[in-house]
């Protein structure tokens, strides 16, 4: 055995370093399987009547246009739809939330009419969409 190997631990003074502080970092990512979105379709000028099937087809086509066949195959559910206000509650898997939101943002036409989706609320909890302080009538 060489001198350097033998003296390495014995000859060199060892400084006492404080023990590192140990901690556990917990990060919750996609803790919910689904996200819920309350959206409204707004047309420039006079609104176009859409039933629930046409509304969902518009969203699926927006996903297909931006993200291809993979984007349009995301599990998307239309939970509630109001034909008068063109307002809907959507359920999307957590992994598809950003894709859906971007597709809705870039959707600008339906039947040669300019339109835009307005995202009113989004939450991993459906109950959170039940009340909105912005729509509260205090009068």
Structure description:
This protein has 139 residues and is of the alpha+beta class. Helices cover 29% and strands 27% of the residues. It contains 3 helices and 5 strands. The chain has a 5-stranded antiparallel sheet with strand order 2-3-1-5-4. Helix 2 (52-72) packs across helix 3. The longest helix has 21 residues, at 52-72. The mean pLDDT is 85. One of its GO terms (molecular function) is ribonuclease P RNA binding. It holds the Pfam family RNase_P_Rpp14.
CA-based shape: elongated
Straight-line N-to-C gap: 91 Å
The helix content, as a percent range, equals 25-40%
Rg from Cα: 27 Å
* Average pLDDT figure: 85
Query: Main sheet?
Result: 5 strands, antiparallel
Structural class: alpha+beta
How many strands?
A: 5
Helices, by number, come to: 3
Going across the major beta sheet, what is the strand order? Answer: 2-3-1-5-4
Order of helices and strands: HEHEEHEE
Strand content: 25-35%
* Multimeric state: single chain
The residue ranges in which pLDDT falls below 50 over 5 or more consecutive positions are: none
Pfam family, one: RNase_P_Rpp14
GO molecular function, one term: ribonuclease P RNA binding
Protein name: Ribonuclease P/MRP subunit p14
Keywords: tRNA processing
Write the layout of secondary structure elements.
Elements: H1 3-11, E1 34-43, H2 52-72, E2 76-82, E3 87-93, H3 97-106, E4 109-110, E5 113-123
Antiparallel strand pairs: 1-3, 1-5, 2-3, 4-5
